[in-house]
Write a structure and sequence with these properties.
Organism: Noviherbaspirillum denitrificans
Number of helices: 12
CATH architecture of the largest domain: 3-Layer(aba) Sandwich
Helix content: 40-55%
Radius of gyration: 18 Å
Oligomer: single chain
Protein name: Haloacid dehalogenase
InterPro entries: CbbY-like, HAD-like_sf, HAD_sf, PGP-like_dom2
Structural class: alpha/beta
GO molecular function, one term: hydrolase activity
CATH superfamily of the largest domain: HAD superfamily/HAD-like
Largest sheet: 6 strands, parallel
CATH topology of the largest domain: Rossmann fold
Order of helices and strands: EHHHHHEHHEHEHEHEHH
Distance between the termini: 25 Å
Number of strands: 6
């Protein structure tokens, strides 16, 4: 099947939120009296497994606490509040490559939706700041505060498919974390994992394809110091269609996927 709809996550896909998420996490640790400060690799490891909205569940595991423990809930609430304030205080950093994919998809008549576990108020503020009044023209649907652990048939991707009137086989989900990718696959959607560094995310989730993005490509550019390699590349819509329909060979996970500018 072709592609009639593409669902996109916010964190790590439409936006580069790593630095803001890291600041929010470390501020939350301070506010809650924890003698802990995460590095960027530590944040990535936790976000990869839990997603950025529920990244504090990694602390619950470390301290052998239930995710519903009041201390974990307080941490998560504080972290999400801090992240919301950071979002409102600055200009969102958009992925130029993803922006081009979105433009090409819309030009091809494809529907675009956002599916994110980011809290509603923060996601709304982020989208309004980046897209303004064009939000409703660009996105057919925005699902915020998604419960990626919902029962099969009642998950956020099921909602997205029903609302857009699209079959799962004609949809592609692009996300950067395990919970969203797993939820999409349970709904029968073809998935692409987009990560800054972690090549193993596709193996963890069983995603259909993995695409390198942002910082790793910047590092490659610095190492090679060649003008032929361009930063912030992202899979093109034409390439995405080719991979999904099997017209292009699957890249080896250990190597960056060649993508067109």
């Amino acid at each position: 099947m072709g592609i009639e709809a593409v669902t996109l996550a916010l964190d790590g896909v439409i936006f580069d939120t790593e630095e803001a998420q890291l600041r929010a996490c470390n501020a939350a640790f301070d506010a809650c009296g924890l003698d802990l400060q995460w590095s960027l690799p530590q944040l990535r490891a936790a976000a990869r497994v839990h997603g950025t909205a529920n990244v504090m569940n990694a602390i619950a595991e470390r301290m052998s606490m239930n995710a519903g423990d009041t201390r974990v809930v307080r941490l998560a609430t504080e972290k999400n509040r801090r992240f919301h304030d950071i979002v409102l205080a600055g200009q969102p950093v958009r992925s130029s490559g993803c922006a081009q994919l979105m433009a090409d998809a819309l030009e091809s008549g494809c529907k675009i939706a956002v599916v994110t576990d980011m809290p509603v108020q923060t996601a709304t503020a982020l989208l309004d700041c980046a897209f303004g009044n064009a939000v409703t023209n660009i996105f057919s649907l925005v699902v915020c505060g998604a419960d990626f652990a919902a029962d099969e048939g009642n998950g956020p991707y099921d909602l997205a498919l029903r609302t857009m009137g699209v079959e799962a086989g004609s949809c592609v989900a692009i996300d950067s974390a395990v919970p969203g990718l797993n939820a999409a696959r349970r709904s029968g959607i073809w998935t692409m994992a987009v990560t800054p560094y972690e090549k193993d995310i596709a193996r963890i989730t069983g995603a259909d394809i993995w695409c390198p993005q942002m910082q790793e490509l910047r590092d490659m550019i610095e190492r090679r110091n060649t003008p032929r390699v361009r930063p912030e590349r992202f899979v093109t819509f034409d390439a995405l269609r080719a991979f999904k329909t099997g017209r292009t060979a699957m890249p080896v996970v250990a190597k960056p996927m060649p993508v067109a500018a």
